[in-house]
Amino acid sequence: MTLEDLIYNRLTKSDDLQRLLAVYAGKPAVFYLTAPDDKATGWKQRKQYPRIDYAVDLQRNPERKTSGILTLNILSAEDGTAPEELEPIVRQLLCGVFLQPDNAPPFALAWARSDAFDQRTDGDGLITGATVSFDVYAFPSQTTSDPDPVLAMNHYIEDITPEVFVIGGRKAIENEFTPTEDNPAFYFRLESMQLQRETNTVAWMDAVIACHIFAGGEEIAWLKALTDNLALAGEVIMLDKSPMFMQNLKADSSLDALSTGQLHLYTRFGILRRPSYNHPLNHANRGITKGGD
């Protein structure tokens, strides 16, 4: 399924919206891009409002690969259910959930703004409406090559707290996932990396890892627990069994979980140099005599 399909399913399977929306071809009146013509046979008893149409505009993002905007219009007849009654239901359905399209990274939506409007039509009189805008965030896998600081954090969290769902970890999302206080979601993202110093055997790297925490409104408790755990541990063992040291931790619960992440890990890990290859000295004693003979 596509992201548009997943959004459609979230809206049409809601009992609250089904009860309030008009019906087209036996389904709630939710349409991608544009609604059918007013004279289309699918309209039940010619009732066409309230209804919803939406569009998703995705664009490339250098860091998150994909981002974009979801624009959703709620339209109601003057004597019907007001858009103000539908708008909170729509926001609740689409925010706080991760959607997993086929052959794409997971996406999450953040409400940006709602704007009221009205328009006059020939057959239906005054139509009132609301345009609801959502920011779209992608959560692509951040794992790279060994030694991988993000993969190390993914495995570390999965091993010590099995109730946490790690986005990009061992388990995959099936269509959608809603984080809660008891089953939160963590997402680790490599923010920057640089060479700190070199020795004969190790190249020491400094990496900043951002951690995004989603827990259904209880993010502060999980942020504190993770910060305490990493501060006490002091290090995380990477896949090659080498340590990744916690140089510093910076937690800020006021930062946005979707865009920035509430915890930044300042880490240091080593990349082992390959041993130099020495050519063997074949027949090293040939031509050498003792005592000058």
Folded structure, characterized:
This protein has helices at 3-12, 15-20, 83-94, 149-160, 219-233, and strands spanning 23-24, 27-28, 30-32, 51-61, 65-77, 98-99, 107-121, 125-138, 165-166, 176-177, 185-198, 202-214, 235-237, 243-251, 263-272. 29% of the residues are buried. The chain contains 5 helices and 15 strands. With 293 residues, the chain is an alpha+beta fold. The protein starts with a helix and ends in a 21-residue tail after the last strand. Strands 3-4-5-8-7-6-10 form a 7-stranded mixed β-sheet. The protein is elongated. Helix content is 19%, strand content 39%. The mean pLDDT is 90.
Topology (SSEs and partners):
Blueprint: H1 3-12, H2 15-20, E1 23-24, E2 27-28, E3 30-32, E4 51-61, E5 65-77, H3 83-94, E6 98-99, E7 107-121, E8 125-138, H4 149-160, E9 165-166, E10 176-177, E11 185-198, E12 202-214, H5 219-233, E13 235-237, E14 243-251, E15 263-272
Parallel strand pairs: 3-4, 9-11
Antiparallel strand pairs: 1-2, 4-5, 5-8, 6-7, 6-10, 7-8, 11-12, 12-15, 13-14, 14-15
Number of helices: 5
| Secondary structure tally: strands | 15
| Oligomeric state, counting identical vs distinct chains | single chain
Low-confidence stretches: none
Helical residue percent band:
10-25%
Q: Overall pLDDT, averaged? A: 90
Global outline = elongated
Secondary-structure class? alpha+beta
Largest sheet: spatial strand order:
3-4-5-8-7-6-10
Largest sheet: 7 strands, mixed
The N- to C-terminal Cα distance equals 86 Å
Radius of gyration: 28 Å
Strand content range: 35-45%
